[in-house]
């Protein structure tokens, strides 16, 4: 089987499983990461490199890996994305790529809520065992035009208005939500291929976080996704 058609699953640093599929693209430009600080606080991320190139994939991995460590250390996923922005800016000659990303900081002893930050069109979704809701808002030209009630060409859904490289502090999306039980992070290769009800059904089917992530990525492949597709699932004790 060609490598591009395989589903790759692994457990990232913090022990939270993810699954990723390269699909028909020439390069795997999606990345996922997790990091658990010595205090026990866990941060997870999914990043999607802009374009189909080695530079895009390297930028995505750099953003995801750096962001989870800063988020777990500082307790601020928005600060983590700005730190990733600074890293891309300072290494422009070595890292010319860019990425969209979503970072989530798990509840801690002093805060029972999830803290989220994002740039671009990676998404975070909450599953409480009954319903699935999207917690993020895409930073794309299409989303901006729809908000104004304008007709949108499908291609504009792929054009970012904010990214890890371009983001200013005011442009980073942020959200604070009560623990939903299960948090799902996905790249656009998933959410543009798999509808919400199908994602909810895949989560409701049960199994480990790894199994559910693999199931979701397989749905994207079955739907004919033409992009890289990545899903990361985190289930809290109350959602288990």
TrEMBL record:
SMART domains: PP2Cc
Pfam families in the record: PP2C_2
InterPro entries assigned: PPM-type-like_dom_sf, PPM-type_phosphatase-like_dom
Listed Gene3D superfamilies: PPM-type phosphatase domain (3.60.40.10)
Domain PPM-type phosphatase as annotated: residue spans: 26-236
Signal sequence, start to end: none
Record-given protein name: Protein phosphatase
Organism: Actinomycetospora succinea
């Amino acid at each position: 089987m060609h490598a591009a058609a395989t589903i790759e699953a692994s457990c990232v640093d913090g022990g939270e499983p993810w699954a990723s599929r390269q699909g028909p693209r020439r390069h795997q430009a999606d990345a996922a990461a997790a990091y658990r600080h010595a205090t026990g606080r866990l941060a997870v991320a999914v990043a999607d490199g802009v374009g189909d190139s080695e530079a895009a994939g390297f930028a995505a991995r750099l953003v995801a890996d750096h962001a989870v460590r800063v988020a777990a250390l500082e307790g601020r996923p928005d600060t983590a994305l700005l730190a990733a922005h600074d890293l891309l800016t300072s290494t422009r000659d070595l890292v010319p790529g860019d990425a969209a990303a979503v970072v989530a900081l798990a509840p801690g002893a002093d805060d029972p809520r999830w803290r989220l930050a994002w740039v671009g069109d990676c998404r975070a979704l909450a599953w409480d065992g009954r319903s699935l809701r999207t917690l993020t808002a895409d930073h794309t030209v299409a989303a901006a035009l729809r908000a104004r009630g304008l007709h949108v060409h499908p291609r504009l859904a792929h054009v970012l208005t904010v990214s890890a490289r371009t983001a200013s502090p005011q442009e980073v999306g942020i959200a604070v939500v009560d623990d939903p039980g299960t948090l799902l992070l996905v790249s656009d290769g998933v959410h543009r291929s798999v509808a919400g009800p199908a994602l909810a059904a895949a989560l409701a089917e049960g199994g480990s976080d790894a199994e559910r992530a693999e199931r979701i990525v397989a749905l994207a492949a079955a739907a004919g996704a033409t992009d890289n597709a990545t899903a990361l699932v985190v289930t809290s004790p109350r959602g288990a």
